[in-house]
Specification:
This is Mog1p/PsbP-like protein. By secondary structure, the protein is mostly beta strands. The protein has two helices and ten strands; from the N terminus they run βββββαββββαβ. Helix content is 15%, strand content 38%. The chain has a seven-stranded antiparallel beta sheet with strand order 3-4-5-9-8-7-6, with helices on both faces.
Length: 192
């Protein structure tokens, strides 16, 4: 069962399964991230506030921006390989969030896999990780917000294939419930 959780002191809310553990209770988490971990699997759920990406002509292209964030994640994960299987951009024009509030573009949703070798295991024992990434963009605040659910669908050590049904359900519910409530969270751009 999922519940709406306040993120960044309530500036953002999103649905997170009630039994997921706040990673900041276990380890240091950057101020720009909210990280939750499934208690019974290797699923991780990460929301991150980032500077609006302008590299590789992604400033005005949500597809390219989502791909940039996916590539950045692959770099951070020291992925041996990464593949984008689909990107879906919003079909409707962005709507203002409310009177006097910045426009939020998105979500753009990307699904892909990355091959990641953890715990100093050889490449032959690398995990195949399903990456589901949603991107919201707030151009007036020079901000991108990503929500990412990561789940190993093939364990390299054993070769075990695992169902990603829970990861997909958690991601879809999080994207559907995602809401920015306080634009003061975003320091860049013009003030509203």
């Amino acid at each position: 069962m999922s519940t709406s959780r306040p993120l960044y002191g309530g500036a953002i809310t999103a649905s997170v399964p009630a039994n997921y553990v706040d990673a900041s209770d276990l380890r240091q988490v950057p101020d720009t991230q909210e990280v939750f971990l499934a208690p019974d699997s290797d699923l991780s759920y990460i929301v991150e506030v980032l500077e609006l990406v302008k590299d590789e002509q992604s400033e005005h292209d949500l597809d390219k921006a989502a791909r940039f964030h996916f590539s950045s994640l692959a770099h951070d994960n020291s992925a041996l390989s990464s593949t984008v299987s689909s990107v879906s951009t919003p079909s409707a024009a962005p709507k203002p969030s409310g009177p006097g509030l910045p426009i939020v573009q998105g979500p753009t949703v990307l699904t892909g896999t990355q091959t990641v070798s953890k715990f100093n295991r050889p490449a032959s024992e690398a995990d195949t990780v399903l990456i589901q990434l949603a991107l919201w963009r707030i151009p007036q605040r020079d901000a991108d917000v990503t929500l990412c659910v990561n789940f190993p669908v093939r364990m390299g050590e054993t070769g075990e294939e695992r169902s990603a049904d829970e990861a997909r359900r958690v991601f879809e519910e999080a994207v559907r419930s995602f809401e920015i409530r306080d634009f003061g969270l975003f320091a860049g751009g013009e003030a509203a």
